[in-house]
Design goal:
With about 450 residues, the chain is an alpha/beta fold. It is built from ten helices and 15 strands. It has two domains: about 35-70, no CATH class; about 85-435, Rossmann fold (3-Layer(aba) Sandwich). The termini are far apart. It binds 2-acetamido-2-deoxy-beta-D-glucopyranose (5 copies).
C-alpha cells in the first residue's frame, strides 16, 4: 500500500535514527542535549520541533544566485497590509473571527483517509475526545463555506500546485489530500526529492517539497552538526529546479528558524543564531533578518522566473503557526486542552507576531515589485490568529498510538506543533479554496 511509504518510521536505536521522511522526531537523547544551550523557557517549544532527517537527493550544481542587500540595509518600507481577500462579490477579511460550534464535523476521518501520517492520526491513536472536530471558523465579516472538494479540483484542472516548506506544509498538504480524496482518488507519482499526487479526474497535480528554510541549507541533525546551515541568497534547488512547471506555489515555513544556525551569504558567513553555545565565534544576528532574507530570496526568484518565462503564477505565503506547549514539555497533559480559546482569551506572542509581520511585509514588497508586469499573484494565508486559538487541535501525546495504554509514564512525548488530521488545519484549506475561487489569474485586486 502506497500509504505505507508515508508512514512514520523510526528506529529507536541510540546510534542512528533513520527517517525516510521529514517526520517529527522527539528523540530522547536529543532533547536533553539540545536543552543545554536552549534553556530559556521561551525557547523550549523549539526543542520539540526536533530534527528532521531527509535524504538529500540533489547534488550541488549551479543555482540561481540572487543578491539582495546586506545585513545593514534597512527593512523594506512599511507597505500597507491588506488581508482582505475577495470572496465572490464581497471582500472579506477571513482572518479575524472566532471558532464556533458546528455539528457537521469533518469531511473525512482517520480511517477513511489512507494518507495520514501516524503522528497526526489522533483518532486512530486513541485520542478520547472528539469535541475538537466540531468547530468551524466564523470570520467576522462573512461566512467561510465548507470545503468543496469538487470546486477545488475544478479550479486545479491542468494545474500543478506545490506546497513548499516544513512539516506543517506537509501537514496542510495531507489535510488537502484527505478532503480531495473524498471525491477523487489521487495516484502517487514518483518524483525525485518531493511527493507528487495526480488526480487523473482533473489532471491536477499536488506536490509537497521538503524545504524548511526555502533557501539552500542543511538542517541540524543528530548525526551531523547540531545547528542549521543556511545560504540566504540561494533558493533551495529541490524546488527551484521544478519551478517552471508550477502554477501555484504555497510557501509554508517558519518554525525551523528558531533553532541554532549559521547563515551564509555570497558563500561568506553572515552571522549565526546561538552559536557561542557550540563554540563558534560569529556575530549572533538572531533569526528575524535571516527569515526575512530567505523569504525575499525565494519570492524574488519566483518573480525573476516569471519575468523570464512569462507563465502566470500564484504565490501564497502562510504565516507562522503558533505552538501550544503549556506546562512541562515532556509530561502528560501538555497541550491537552479540549476546547478552543475564546475571543481575546489569548494574545499573539511577540515572536509569532514579528514573524507574521516579516512574512506579510515581504509579500507586500513582492507584490509591489511584480506589479510592473502582472501575471503574478501574491497572497498571505494569515493563520496565526486562528491557529493560536486552537490549543485543542494538536496531537499532544496522541502523536503515538495509545500513549497511556500502560498508564502514564514519567516522560511523555508531546507534539504541540503539528495538527491532528482531521482537525483545525482543514480550515486553512477552506480559506485557501476561497483564495483560489475569486482569482486564479493574478488580476489586480479591486476595492482596496
Ligand atoms: C454575485 O453577484 C451576482 C450578480 O450580481 C449574483 O448573480 C450572484 O448570485 C452573487 N453571488 C453571491 C455569492 O452573492
Ligand atoms: C469514519 O467514517 C466512516 C465512514 O463515514 C465511518 O463508517 C466510521 O465509523 C468513521 N470512523 C470514526 C472513527 O469515526
Ligand atoms: C495536465 O496538467 C499539466 C500541468 O500539471 C499540463 O502541463 C498538461 O498540459 C496537462 N495535460 C493536459 C492533457 O491538459
Ligand atoms: C572572537 O572574534 C572576535 C572578533 O573577531 C575576536 O576579537 C575574539 O578574539 C574572538 N574570540 C575567540 C574566543 O576566538
Ligand atoms: C539564542 O538566541 C536568541 C535570539 O537571538 C536569544 O534571545 C537567546 O538569549 C539566545 N540563547 C542563548 C542561550 O544564547
Amino acid at each position: 500500500m502506497e500509504a505505507q511509504k508515508y508512514a512514520f518510521k523510526m528506529k529507536s536505536s541510540t546510534t542512528t535514527t533513520t527517517l525516510k521522511d521529514d517526520s517529527l522526531c522527539l528523540s530522547k537523547n536529543l532533547v536533553p542535549y539540545t536543552l543545554q544551550f536552549l534553556l530559556p523557557i521561551a525557547l523550549l517549544p523549539i526543542v520539540l520541533l526536533c530534527i528532521y532527517f531527509y535524504p538529500l537527493f540533489l547534488t550541488k550544481s549551479q543555482t540561481n544566485e540572487l543578491h539582495y542587500g546586506t545585513i545593514s540595509s534597512p527593512p523594506p518600507p512599511p507597505y500597507p497590509v491588506n488581508n482582505k481577500i475577495k470572496a465572490e462579490n464581497n471582500s472579506c477579511d477571513y482572518f479575524n473571527g472566532k471558532w464556533i460550534h458546528d455539528k457537521s464535523g469533518p469531511l473525512y476521518n482517520g480511517t477513511t483517509c489512507g494518507t495520514i501520517k501516524e503522528g497526526q492520526n489522533c483518532m486512530t491513536n486513541g485520542r478520547p475526545d472528539s469535541n475538537y472536530l466540531y468547530y468551524r471558523w466564523k470570520p467576522n465579516e462573512c461566512n467561510l463555506p465548507r470545503f468543496e472538494p469538487n470546486t477545488f479540483l475544478q479550479l486545479s484542472k491542468n494545474k500543478h500546485i506545490a506546497f513548499i516548506g516544513d512539516s506543517l506544509a506537509r501537514n496542510q498538504f495531507e489535510s488537502l489530500l484527505c478532503m480531495l480524496s473524498t471525491v477523487s482518488k489521487p495516484k502517487p507519482v514518483h518524483h525525485k526529492g518531493s511527493h507528487w499526487w495526480h488526480f487523473a479526474s482533473h489532471n491536477a497535480t499536488l506536490s509537497d517539497y521538503w524545504s524548511p528554510f526555502l533557501v539552500q541549507g542543511d538542517e541540524r541533525s543528530k548525526s551531523g552538526p547540531s545547528f542549521n546551515t543556511m545560504h540566504l541568497d540561494r533558493v533551495n534547488e529541490r524546488w527551484l529546479k521544478d519551478m517552471d512547471g508550477m502554477d501555484l506555489i504555497f510557501l509554508s515555513f517558519g518554525n525551523w528558524f528558531n533553532v541554532p544556525s549559521i547563515y551564509y551569504e555570497n558563500g561568506l558567513v553572515l552571522g549565526c543564531l546561538n552559536c557561542s553555545s557550540f563554540g563558534l565565534n560569529y556575530t549572533d544576528i538572531g533569526f528575524y533578518v535571516p527569515l526575512r532574507k530567505a523569504l525575499r530570496t525565494s519570492l524574488n526568484a519566483i518573480i525573476e522566473r516569471k519575468r523570464a518565462k512569462g507563465k502566470e503564477i500564484s504565490v501564497i505565503v502562510r504565516t507562522f503557526s503558533p505552538t501550544h506547549f503549556d506546562g512541562d514539555w515532556d509530561k502528560a497533559g501538555t497541550c491537552s486542552k479540549t476546547e478552543p480559546y475564546g475571543n481575546g482569551e489569548k494574545k499573539v506572542g511577540e515572536m509569532e507576531s514579528e514573524i507574521r509581520r516579516i512574512q506579510t511585509e515581504e509579500v507586500e514588497s513582492a507584490k509591489a515589485k511584480a506589479n510592473a508586469f502582472g501575471g503574478i499573484r501574491f497572497e498571505v494565508l494569515d493563520v496565526t490568529e486562528l491557529a493560536l486559538l486552537r490549543p485543542d487541535g494538536h496531537p499532544g501525546a496522541y502523536m503515538k498510538p495509545f500513549p497511556f495504554a500502560n498508564g502514564v509514564s514519567e516522560h511523555v512525548q508531546n507534539d504541540c506543533v503539528h495538527w491532528c488530521l482531521p482537525g483545525p488545519i482543514d480550515t486553512w484549506n477552506e480559506i485557501f479554496l476561497e483564495m483560489m475561487k475569486w482569482d486564479w489569474k493574478g488580476q489586480p485586486r479591486s476595492e482596496e
